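Exercise 3.2. Students should predict the tertiary structure of the chain below and write it as structure tokens, then compare their answer with the key that follows.

Predict this chain's 3D structure.
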Amino acid sequence: MYKQLIRLITEKNRILIAGIETICIFCLLGLGMFDIDRGTDAINIFNTKMGLVPQLIYIGIFWVLCAFFEFYLMLSQKFTKLIEWYRMLTTAMIPAYIIFKVKILGVELYSADIFVFIVIPICQIVMLVVSGLDELHKQSYNNFSEVK
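Answer key:
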């Protein structure tokens, strides 16, 4: 009974994490697209009168690379300390990125930026908690099977 319950919880957690990672991938791709658009005139998605900020090209490329890494994590379904570190780093970088973008570069924030800045940390924190719970379930399952 306990073994079946652990298996069910683990499977549901994987489905939850895959859904949240998909949201995170689209948010990171959107954030990268916004920054690349504001950094170059090669793509003109938004008709803004704002000047170009070339520094945002590199940051946009970084966000797109993070999206590809999230896609790899979604396919591999791995939970290691390195992945937890990456998730915490992504969560911590968002406020620093907002300060850098607004205060140092002087770029105005769009509502899509604000939405993404709220959604990405929430998704990353939920994935950290769920993967931590999954790890606790695995440890308790191993302890339970050793006692038998």
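Discussion points: Residues 35 and 60 are 5 Å apart (CA to CA). The chain has four helices and no strands.
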